Amino acid sequence: MGQIVVLDQNMVNMIAAGEVIERPASVVKELMENSIDAGATKITVSIEDGGRKLISVADNGCGMDGEDLGRAFESHTTSKIKTSSDLHGISTLGFRGEALASIASVAQVKGTSRTRGQDGANCIEIDCGNKGSISPCSADYGTTIQVRDIFYKLPARRKFLRTTNTEMGHIAEQFTRIALANTPASNKQGLDLTLLHNGRELYRLSDKDNLHRRIAELFPIPSSGISENLIETESNEKGLHILALMGKPSISRTSRKFQYIFLNGRFIRDKFISHAIKEAYRGLLEPNRFPVVFLFIRMPYEDYDVNVHPTKSEVRFYNANLVHSQILATLREKLLSTDLQMQAQLPSPANFPGSQGSPPTGHRSQAIADAMAEFFKKHRPVQTQEQFSYKSKQHLVALHPPTGQIPESHTGPATASALRATTDSAETSPPVPEIRSEERKFLQIHDSFIVVQTDDGFDIIDQHALHERIMYEHLFRRIRKSKLESQKLLIPESFEVTPSGADALKTNAELLEKLGIELVPFGPKTMAIQAFPTLLSKADPLDFVQDLIDLLDRKDVNLDGERLLDEVLNMAACKAAIKAGQRLTMSEIEQLLWDKENAESASRCPHGRPTTIKFSISDLEKQFKRT
Ligand code: ADP
Ligand code: MG
């Protein structure tokens, strides 16, 4: 006798529920999406016990008549699509006709609904797939679905539910996504939304909220307020409307959790888009940091497929490259044209140690001094590099790698010319105007930082980080145009090379050529550096080439050409930049400040660390009780 049987419908629904209904938060998502599809302008979500006891979603949408209410809980019943051609442009959040049936197969469910045309409402109860009959009841227009004791007949599933707090966290996250997707700015109409837990109001959001206000209400983190640190940009090209609120680098996170991507009102996860976001922030964030981004994409429904994932959180774009490049361009352009300098956060008077209310002025200035000391301690760059002195081009030819750690004196004209060599001599780099000494409003402190007076306060610049950025941009521009100019070393520097290192050099011969590095075989396992880029005159050729080989020979990462070049230039900039602990002459500082003005993106070093921190005079006045 055959072994195969046809599963009964309730079994089918329970299996389907395994895909869509993972935990109470999935129920919240499905029910809220149904309310939005029903055109609701007000949704109230009430939860008890993290959803274990009750999940109730009430809306003022179009409602269902008695017949539809009875049918809605059957499997594969939907009002949203009819024929296969409807699958090619789904404009509703739901279409699979599975959610209500799945939910009703794993819990005790009560549905109440009333359309505008009805005098009274109807209700129905389903207990783990056992459907009762439709009966009249009294209720307002719209639909309320109550889900009790989820998974109560499935102890194995119920056991997997986490603590009330954890489940509530997941529910709040689903609620947040829907709240973000439905403001007057991000979608056609606003949505009045309330979330209650055990009778306590967690969120009450008004349909009048604009996006900024909604973000402020959903993310009310007091100290590092997200909403005040967003940069807005918009583009509308090639059938793609993009609205982005991008977090400044200062509020970046350690995970992608704060990247909210919406496609036509649907929250999605997409690896192309995540990659575009990451690329847009390249050089503005340290590695392993993720920007906060709220991204709203509108495009024709026909240009992607949502029918690829049961929870519809992933889609398939028909032209993923276009989506990637449009997002990258829109975000990158805005980031590069925005002043992203760090505003210093002076401690608020209430935070001073041992202070209650307003401390006496003596304490206050001591506290500021302490804060400043603390600031310098924290922001002092680690000096991992040897402290090279400036070397003019002539030095490079004549000198071997520096033997000592002691910087040369920096009084000679050679120093200034070396710094100037970092600006583009062949390009049209304007000469630095001479600044008379009485006009100078800057000062180098601890041989590492430059304090500059600005119109409304002062900046503190990390000299290494800034010079690194300037060098990086300069190298980048140069190499884009042609190869770097190089200079023959008087005495070639030889070094040992492993077979895989030699291989890596061979594979990247073109890159070496572009960099202006000339290597020749010098024995069986030895090579020699014959020429080295002029722009990197401050770096030690041997050390540079060794690190370059390490980078090229890295087996763990597979960098494409562009990324590899980027890494190489990063390294080059770091090695060739002035170091912390290096005294600069007035003209060198002037040069640096001048280059900063002309840099494309001077606020961050190529690794994404800030180069400059701004202090405003009004903050200082407040601290000194002058206002
Ligand atoms: P889908 O949303 O994929 O169509 P569901 O199982 O979630 O499938 O819902 C089945 C149907 O029930 C929907 O197509 C819709 O017609 C109706 N429905 C569900 N929820 C509501 C609601 N809140 N208001 C009005 N109609 C609803
Ligand atoms: Mg649905």
Features of the shown structure:
627 residues; alpha+beta; five-stranded mixed β-sheet; 19 helices; 24 strands; binds adenosine-5'-diphosphate; binds magnesium ion
Q: Using the alpha-carbon principal axes, give the shape.
A: elongated
Q: Which sheet architecture does the biggest sheet show?
A: 9 strands, mixed
Quaternary structure classification: single chain
In total, the number of strands is 24
What percent of residues adopt helix (DSSP H or I)? 25-40%
Question: Could you give the distance between the termini?
Answer: 93 Å
Mean model confidence by pLDDT: 83
Could you explain the architecture of this structure?
The chain is an alpha+beta fold. Helices cover 34% and strands 21% of the residues. It is built from 19 helices and 24 strands. The strands form five sheets. Strands 1, 2, 3, 4, 5, 6, 7, 8 and 9 form a nine-stranded mixed beta sheet that branches. Helix 1 crosses helix 4 (99-105) and helix 12 packs parallel to helix 18 (586-598). The longest helix has 19 residues, at 361-379. It is elongated, with a radius of gyration of 32 Å. The model is unreliable at 350-362, 379-418 and 420-426 (pLDDT under 50).
Question: Which helices and strands, and how do they pair?
Answer:
Elements: H1 9-20, H2 24-37, E1 42-48, E2 54-59, H3 66-72, H4 99-105, E3 108-114, E4 121-127, E5 130-131, E6 135-137, E7 142-148, H5 155-159, H6 164-181, E8 192-197, E9 200-205, H7 211-218, E10 230-237, E11 240-247, E12 259-263, E13 266-268, H8 271-280, E14 293-298, E15 304-305, E16 316-317, H9 320-336, E17 342-343, H10 361-379, H11 393-398, H12 413-420, E18 442-445, E19 449-454, E20 457-462, H13 463-481, E21 486-496, H14 499-507, H15 509-515, E22 518-521, E23 526-533, H16 541-552, H17 561-576, H18 586-598, E24 612-616, H19 617-623
Helix pairs in contact: 1-4, 2-6, 8-9, 12-18, 13-17, 16-17
Bound molecules: adenosine-5'-diphosphate (ADP) and magnesium ion.
